[in-house]
UniProtKB/TrEMBL annotation:
Organism: Amycolatopsis dendrobii
Domain ANTAR, chain residue ranges per copy: 204-265
Keywords: Kinase, Transcription, Transcription regulation, Transferase
Domain of life, per lineage: Bacteria
Stored SMART domains: ANTAR
GO molecular function, one term: RNA binding
Protein's name according to its UniProt entry: GAF and ANTAR domain-containing protein
Length: 273
């Protein structure tokens, strides 16, 4: 593998600060919010948009949409996530061709997106001449046949407390040599914002799911309690005996206990209890 095929950047903080201080070439709009002026303002607005997303999936979709404007050399963008078993998948992409290019890397076990997704620190992997890549020969050749010349992948590193797995933001260009130093800087800053925002979105989603599950558990308990009360009143039995009747009946009918309890409470006047 040569330096032209993969470059890893661990000391990019100073470059990021200098980069953010320079003016943007143009602005872009998303969800009615204009991103204009210095790049620092662009990324600040982008952070708000990401944190304002209603779901983790929507936040990731906003990341890949923003990527094509923040790094205009890119023609396609996608996100790779690494699963607990070591596998990889593509939850969002701007075009199906990006998912196909990701899938090729997963299949052959090589490529910038895998290099970036496996990292434990901020950085990137760059292949700026895919058809002639020494580091990724099989993927590079196949990507070249599909009409792509460059791939820049930056590492997504979620918060350690987040359930979101590590991954990468993948930027594809039809042109060889598409990604210069400014493009790399832009992509690195985007990855840092995305990592924080996606971690927050994942935590919010997990908390929301936990709340939903807790509410369902409370509702189920209340429903079973109502059904028990009806049986106790009808049959003159204890709470434990009423619960045992519900449990045996649910097993005999092969229905969930909470579903049986719902039927008892809704139709107890019609049923011979």
């Amino acid at each position: 593998m040569t330096d032209a095929d993969i470059r890893v950047d661990d000391g990019w903080e100073a470059d990021r600060i200098a980069f953010c201080a320079e003016p943007a070439a143009d602005g872009w709009a998303r969800s009615g919010v204009a991103l204009e002026g210095p790049l620092a303002r662009q990324f600040g607005t982008l952070a708000v948009l990401l944190l304002d997303a209603d779901s983790l999936h929507e936040a990731m979709e906003r990341v890949v949409s923003a990527a094509l404007r923040i790094v205009p050399q890119a023609d396609l963008a996608s996100i790779t996530l690494r699963s607990a078993d070591g596998g990889f998948h593509t939850p969002v992409r701007t075009h199906e061709a990006a998912e196909e290019l990701d899938r090729i890397q997963y299949q052959v076990g090589e490529g910038p997106c895998l290099e970036a997704a496996r990292r434990e620190r901020p950085g990137y992997a760059l292949a700026n001449n895919l058809p002639e890549s020494d580091g990724f020969p099989e993927f590079g050749a196949r990507a070249g046949r599909l009409g792509f010349g460059s791939l820049l992948a930056t590492t997504l590193l979620p918060d350690a407390k987040s359930d979101l797995p590590p991954g990468a933001i993948n930027l594809y260009s039809h042109e060889a040599g598409a990604f210069d130093g400014d493009a790399v800087d832009s992509a690195l800053v985007l990855a840092s914002h995305a990592s924080l925002a996606l971690s927050g979105s994942a935590a919010h989603t997990a908390a929301a799911l936990k709340e939903v599950h807790l509410k369902r558990a409370v509702d189920s308990r209340d429903l079973i309690g109502q059904a028990k009360g009806i049986l106790m009143n009808r049959r003159g039995i204890s709470a434990d005996e009423a619960f045992d009747v519900l449990r045996r009946t649910s097993q005999d009918l092969n229905v969930k206990l909470v579903e049986l309890a719902h039927t008892v409470t809704e139709r107890h006047r019609e049923l011979d209890l």
